[in-house]
Amino acid sequence: IDVVGVSNAPLRNVTIRGGSISNFDTGLRCDYVQNGCFEQLSISSNLSSGVLFNGAGTGRCSGNVLRACAVGKNGSYGVFIHANNGACEANEVRDCQIFDNATYGIYLAANSGGQGCDNVIARCAVSGNLSYGVFLTGTGGVCSGNRIEGCTIFGNGSYGVTLSGVGGRCSGNSLADNCLYQNTTHGIYLNVANNNTIADNHVSATDANAGLSFGVNWAIAASNVVVRNTCSG
Fold first, then answer.
1. Sign of the four-CA dihedral 82, 139, 95, 184
2. Regarding beta strands 186-191 and 161-164, do their DSSP bridges make them parallel or antiparallel, or are they unpaired?
């Protein structure tokens, strides 16, 4: 399903509800869509991403809700929020199962001057993805004010959650009340990410296979608030 607006004339208030999408290139692609609602969909076994919210290239894809969907076994990302040189703001991914995708479960990229701000990932199960569970990056752009809350993130092949602001800004984000377990290398990792809040998370059984693993780890990061978390195993 291809929902196509253009950068200077976005589509608004589109609703797609119910059904299955499989064995295409991208399952659900939304170019320059605002205030859409996409719910109760099963999106699997597509060659590239399961879901793509695309605001790249001076456009905007904002205010959309992906809710109560199962997105799994796709050949690249489960959910890709693509804001490079554009904007993806105030989108929500809620009550979804994101599983067994070939790279990242949920990937928010606000690179090359992009704006990836005020998005919400809530009450999702993100599991078994070959690389990162959830990855938020503002390389050369801004990734700010996003919230990851009440999620269960487990069994992913790399880090559970990563915030990265190399060459840009990844700040003012919040990770709260999440359960992360059996992810590889680190449960939560901050890389050049400042002024974020990591609170009330439980991180367990992080396994690097060989070498060190951490529940929460950060590098070249400052002024983050890390409180009331528990790390075990």
1. positive
2. parallel
d(CA 92, CA 106): 12
148 DSSP 8-state letter: E
Q: How far apart are CA 115 and CA 37, in angstroms?
A: 21
Q: Could you give the CA distance from residue 147 to residue 175 in angstroms, rounded to a whole number?
A: 6
SS3 of residue 157 by DSSP: coil
SS3 content of the chain, % helix, strand, coil (to 5): 0, 50, 50
Contact 192, 220 (CB under 8 A): yes
pTM: 0.97
Whole-angstrom distance, CA of residue 187 vs CA of residue 160: 5
54-70 pLDDT, tens digit each:
999 989 999 999 999 99
Q: Residue 153 and residue 181: Cα distance in Å, rounded?
A: 7
In tens, the pLDDT along 110-166 reads 999 999 999 999 999 999 999 999 999 999 999 999 999 999 999 999 999 999 999
> Exposed, middle or buried: residue 66 (CB in 10 Å: 0-12, 13-18, 19+)?
buried
Sign of CA dihedral 9, 141, 120, 154: positive
Query: What is the distance between the alpha carbons of residues 158 and 181, in angstroms, rounded to a whole number?
Result: 12
Distance CA 39, CA 42 (A): 9
- Residue whose C-alpha is closest to residue 172's, from 118, 96, 214: 118
CA angle 193, 84, 82 (to 5 degrees): 95
CA distances from residue 129 to 30, 65, 186 in whole angstroms, order as listed: 22, 22, 15
